Give the backbone structure.
Amino acid sequence: MSMRTQVGIVGAGPAGLVLSQLLHLKGIESVVLENCSRQHVEERVRAGVLEQNTVDLLNEMGLGERMKRQGLVHHGIELRFGGRGHRIDFDDLTDGRAVTIYAQNEVIKDLTNARLKTGAQIIFEVEDVSLHDFESPKPNIQFRHQANSETLQCDFIAGCDGFHGVCRPAIAAALTLYERVYPFAWLGILANAAPSSEELIYCHHQRGFALHSMRSPQITRLYLQCDPEENLANWPDDEIWTELQNRFDTADGWKLNRGEITQKGITGMRSFVAEPMQRGRLFLAGDAAHIVPPTGAKGLNLAVADVRILTAAIVDFYRTGRRELLDKYSETCLRRVWKVQRFSWWMTSMLHRLPGDNPFDQRRQLAELDYVTSSRAASQSLAENYVGLPME
Ligand code: APR
Ligand code: PHB
C-alpha cells in the first residue's frame, strides 16, 4: 500500500504533533507515524513547565483553552539552600513574562484532539519504520501497520521520534555528537497531595538536589537526586517522604505535604547534541537531535522552538520554491539549542551534589547560589533563560 503527503512526520511527541498542527494551519499536509499507542503517548509522565514562548504559540494555534483553565501561571521560582528560600521574581526581572505549569501529556492530548478533529492522519502503533531516498527530491518512509507493509511518499521527512528513534541513526555517519552523561539521576514521584508551596522549589542540599513541582492544586510532583543505578525497590514510600523532608528542611520548620504516591520513576540525566540536524530532505527536531538534563524543564520548549523554525522554512519553500531557510535550518536551531544546553547544564551543576564531594566545589556552588540570589544581574540572567529566550 502506498500513500502520499507533503511532510512525513515520524513521532507523535510534542515535536511531531506541534509541527503537524503548525503545517496544517499553513495549508500544508502531513501524516504522523507513531510506534506507541495513543493511550501510551497520552499517559506518559514527563516535565510540565511551559515557557512563555510555548504558551503564546499554543494560544495562537487555538490550543490554549484547557491550558488557560487548568494551567498554573507561575511568576517566580524559589532557590533553596542553606536552609533558606530565595525567590527569583520573573515579573520584575523579565517584564512580566511567566511560565505555565501544564503537564506535557495534557499538551499532547490537546494537540492530538485538535489534529484528529481536522481529519488529520496520525497512525499509531506502526512498526519497523525506515527512511528512504531522503537525499533525493522524492523521499519515502516504509513501515508496517496492522500487519500490512506501507509506504508513505513525501516531499520532506521530519524526524521527531525522540532520543531512541530511528531517524538520527539513519544519518549517523554524517553527524558529530556532543555528549555529557551526569553521574546522578532523579527519582521522581507524583503524589495526591496539595503542593506545599505556590511555586517550584529548586533545592540544593548536602544530601543532594530536590525539586518541588506540581501538576494541579491537588497533585504534587517531587524529585530527589539519586544514583543512576538506584533501584526503586530500595525506596519505600516512607523513606522517599523522609528524604524529601530532610532536603527541603528550613530553619523555620517548613513542612512538606504528604499523600498517596501514584507514580514513581527514575530519570537519567544527559546533555546531548547531534550536528547538523538535517541531511537532504530529512530534518531532525526535538529529542531526536538533542537532550537536555531536566533541571530547568527545557526539553519540550526546545522541541517546540525547532519545529517553529522548520515550519517557517517549509512554508517558505512551498510559497517561493526557495531553499535558503531549509538549508539554514540546523544552523538556526543550533544557536538556540546551545544556549539552552548551557543554561540546563549550568542549573544542573549549580544545584546537584557533585561526585567526590570536593570541598572546593561545594564552596563554589554555594557562592554561585549566593550570587544568583543577591545580584540583580545574575538573577535576571536566570529568569530570562527560565521563562525562555526570545525567538529570533
Ligand atoms: N517510529 C515511530 N515513532 C517513534 C519511533 C519510531 N521508530 N521511535 C520513537 N517514536 C515516538 C515515541 O514513541 C514518541 O512518542 O516518537 C515520539 C517522540 O516523542 P518525545 O520523546 O516526546 O520527543 P519530542 O517530541 O522531541 O519531545 C521533546 O518533550 O516529551 C517531552 O521531555 C520530553 O524532552 C522531551 C520533549
Ligand atoms: C516537573 O514538574 O516535572 C518539572 C518541573 C521543573 C523541572 C523539571 C521537571 O525543572
Q: What stands out?
A: The chain has two domains: 2-74+99-178+270-346, 182-269+354-387. The mean pLDDT is 97. The pocket of adenosine-5-diphosphoribose (ligand 1) is lined by residues 10-16, 33-36, 41, 46-47, 104, 126, 129, 160-162, 164-166, 286-288, 299-300, 303 (CB under 6 Å). The longest helix spans residues 329-351.
